[in-house]
Amino acid sequence: MADQYAQTRQDNRPAGTPVIRWEEPPEGPVLVLLDQTRLPAEEVELVCTDAPALVEAIQSLAVRGAPLLGIAGAYGVALAAARGFDVDDAARALENARPTAVNLSVGVRRALSAYQAALAKTGDPRQAAPAALAAARQLHQEDARASARMAEHGLALLDELQPGGGHRILTHCNTGSLVSGGEGTAFAVALAAHRAGRLRRLWVDETRPLLQGARLTAYEAARNDLAYTVLTDNAAGSLFAAGEVDAVLIGADRIAADGSVANKVGSYPLAVLARYHHVPFIVVAPVTTVDPDTPDGASIEVEQRPGYEVTEIMAPQAPVTGAGGGLPVAPLGTQAYNPAFDVTPPELVTAIVTEEGAVSPVTAEGLAELCARSRRS
Ligand code: MRU
């Protein structure tokens, strides 16, 4: 599969360069992605020429984060259509690349149904292909707009909870422009607080084992001049105990109909800590992350990742000594428990903020109303 990737080094890419883009060189359309596994050390782009290459990029977390997975999935269908591959096969492979973030299947299905509708009309796969691309582009733009509105609603909620500002926000994983058509979800709220002069500190959980916090959120915070501090996930408890956290803000990979929230593993312990310390625990996610077909938390499939992600440090330049090619931090052959996500029950979530507004307290009825509002708008 490696020959389907061309890699280009792009250190110091200007801020605002999209993390995913469609290009049409003479050899045929391609999808260009910023490889998030190489950040913050290097800015390297991957050029995907077919869906299997994109599936590999999704599974290796080169492209990741719920909203971006949706956008990537939609462009992946468009790529298969534009290059004349079997679109149904590509859609199936993309949709199944990772199980937890519902946005992936939302994105794939949107592009696929646009393609199928055009195919039914024209009977010609070549003429139908642009419909898939148009759907992917539309989803990309909608996500950017949703991001801006989540930032507004999220900051309004923070200000309501703590009038006067000076917010000290703890976040987990990575939820900024690296995962979105815009400025992201939870990170976009922190950014809005910073721009309004009301962010005192962004506490960034390192987010073991793949360090999306330390590597990616810190990268985004530094590029935007936020006052931020990275901590090990284990240090969060003492930070709460010291009274240093005013709110927890996280994103989500799937929100069940009852308001249960699947997000990066380590989110649930933060919710428990937040409840004990009377700190608001706020989830920021677009309506596309709410899955009315998943009734509750127990019905959410949590992705299990390879154990070597835990038993090795994945530095690419580390000696190739373990199964994952990283530096072992446990004896070879050690088994590891490595769920990529955990599920927080709705009663521990203070509010879910979407582009359509916030729901608080979190109830199935409140969420259903937000989804209905989104369908009307
Ligand atoms: O495994 P990842 O890095 O794809 O997990 C991402 C997360 O858990 C994010 O917090 C979530 O997708 C929300 S992104 C706005």
UniProtKB/TrEMBL annotation:
Q: Which GO terms describe its molecular function?
A: S-methyl-5-thioribose-1-phosphate isomerase activity
Pathway participation: Amino-acid biosynthesis; L-methionine biosynthesis via salvage pathway; L-methionine from S-methyl-5-thio-alpha-D-ribose 1-phosphate: step 1/6
UniProt site positions, description: Transition state stabilizer: 173
Keyword check for GTP-binding: no
Provide the residue span(s) of the region labelled Disordered: 1-23
Q: Which InterPro entries match?
A: IF-2B-related (IPR000649), IF-M1Pi (IPR005251), IF_2B-like_C (IPR042529), Initiation_fac_2B_a/b/d (IPR011559), M1Pi_N (IPR027363), NagB/RpiA_transferase-like (IPR037171)
Q: Does the keyword S-adenosyl-L-methionine apply?
A: no
Which reaction does this enzyme catalyse, per its entry?
Answer: 5-(methylsulfanyl)-alpha-D-ribose 1-phosphate = 5-(methylsulfanyl)-D-ribulose 1-phosphate
Q: What is its EC number?
A: 5.3.1.23
The processes (GO biological process) annotated in the record are: L-methionine salvage from methylthioadenosine
Q: Which UniProt keywords apply?
A: Amino-acid biosynthesis, Isomerase, Methionine biosynthesis
EC category name: isomerase
Q: What is this protein called?
A: Methylthioribose-1-phosphate isomerase
- In its UniProt entry, the species of origin is given as Streptomyces mexicanus
Gene name per UniProt? mtnA
